[in-house]
Amino acid sequence: MSDETYIVVGDDGTPKAVVDLALLTEEGAKLGAAMALSCDDPERLDAITAEAVEKYDDPTYSFVISAALRMVTENILAPCMAVAHKATGIDLRDGLDRILRGEEPPRV
After folding, report:
1. What share of the chain is helix, strand, coil (3-state, %, to 5)?
2. d(CA 42, CA 12)
3. Higher-confidence position of 92 and 58
4. Could you give the CA distance from residue 34 to residue 44 in angstroms, rounded to a whole number?
5. What's the rounded Cα separation, in Å, for the pair 72 and 19?
6. What is the domain partition of the chain in residue ranges?
7. What is the mean pLDDT of the chain?
8. Calpha distance 98→81 (Å, rounded)
9. Distances, alpha carbon 77 to alpha carbons 68, 72, 102, in Å
């Protein structure tokens, strides 16, 4: 366990889990990297997802998935969106905003 170990409690104060935040963040980064490397291989993505579901119990799974999503968003998606905007003038955030409003994103 690291210095970033926390006890998760329920609404009634009963301990539900012990969480090592540093370990979960590391596992999430590895999961995110594995998925990013396989972004063009749907079968491999299915396998990686299945492995993660089997490997992590609840609530650990939720923490690892959140860490993976954060890593991919900050370290892969953000730079790609910046490059796409600079190269094409298209701001992909416009499409994401439309999705958040329940609308269809524009087709590029």
Report:
1. 65, 10, 25
2. 42
3. 92
4. 9
5. 22
6. 5-76
7. 90
8. 16
9. 12, 6, 21
Q: How far, CA to CA in Å, does 75 sit from each of 48, 70, 94?
A: 19, 8, 20
Model confidence pLDDT, tens digit, residues 18-71: 888 899 899 999 999 999 999 999 999 999 999 999 998 877 888 899 999 999
Helices (H) and strands (E) in the chain, counts: 5, 2
pLDDT at site 1: 58
| Alpha-carbon span 60 to 94, nearest angstrom | 33
Lookup: tokens for 28: 């999430």
- Which residue has 């799974």 as its token pair? 61
> How far is it, in rounded angstroms, from Cα 43 to Cα 85?
30
As a whole number of Å, the CA-based R_g of the chain is: 18
Q: What band does 102 get if pLDDT is binned at 50, 70 and 90? A: very high
Give this prediction's pTM.
0.74
